[in-house]
Amino acid sequence: MRSYRALLIRKFPENPTLGFYRHPKLPSSLLGRTLGRFLHVTSPADVLAFYYQERFFTSYEVLFTDTHVYDKRAYYPLEDVRGVERQNRTLFLEISQLGRIVIHKMVLAVPLAAEIMERVFTLIIRHPKEDAIEKVLQLQADLNPASIQWLKLRDEVLRTIDLLHEKYQEGKLSLLEYEMLREELLKRL
Predict the structure, then answer these.
(1) What are the two backbone dihedrals, phi and then psi, of residue 13, each rounded to the nearest 5 degrees?
(2) How far apart are CA 23 and CA 117, in angstroms?
(3) SS (HEC) of 78-104
(4) Which pTM value belongs to this model?
(5) Which own/partner pairs from 70-78 qualify as long-range (CB within 8 Å, at least 24 positions apart)?
(6) From first to last of its 189 residues, what are the pLDDT tens digits of the chain?
């Protein structure tokens, strides 16, 4: 399961007036009271980020561990979050479960808190893509400029061949024209 520890510690907002807390400044009194409600979180050390809002005679909490997010209604892996939409102070999360999308609703205290939480979930959704981009950049740093240029040329040639194949499938190119153009492009490599 994918860990979001570094992302949450680095990017989760810290704003106690709105109810946002992150490791290492988690309020132990609030966290201690809350953990009794979440059976799947066994230790306060597992909690990396925390949202807490006080209501009349009740409270609403959202806990983030390195792999999951928990609220009163449900818990799910962070890697299963596929989308987020905000309407005033309500968030609608799209969660992928068993090959289908399930909508999970979170109602926060104020519209600003909902906007901040929407940004958090957007970061979580985009995180795997950012990791892949960082890996590519790291691999490119080890290559010389000529190798990088050749890889870019190869990618462009392959994309052009794919476009030519689509034109052939649509009947806009004959098989002979497609083969000749493809061979000419491959000679450039």
Answers:
(1) -70, 150
(2) 16
(3) HHHEEEEEEECCEEEEEEEECCEEEEE
(4) 0.66
(5) 70/38, 70/40, 70/41, 71/106, 72/37, 73/104, 73/105, 74/104, 75/38, 75/40, 76/104, 77/1, 77/2, 78/2, 78/4, 78/124
(6) 788 888 899 899 999 999 999 988 888 888 887 787 777 887 888 899 999 988 777 788 999 999 999 988 889 999 999 999 999 999 999 999 888 999 999 988 889 999 999 999 999 998 876 666 667 777 777 788 888 788 888 888 888 888 888 888 888 889 899 999 999 988 887
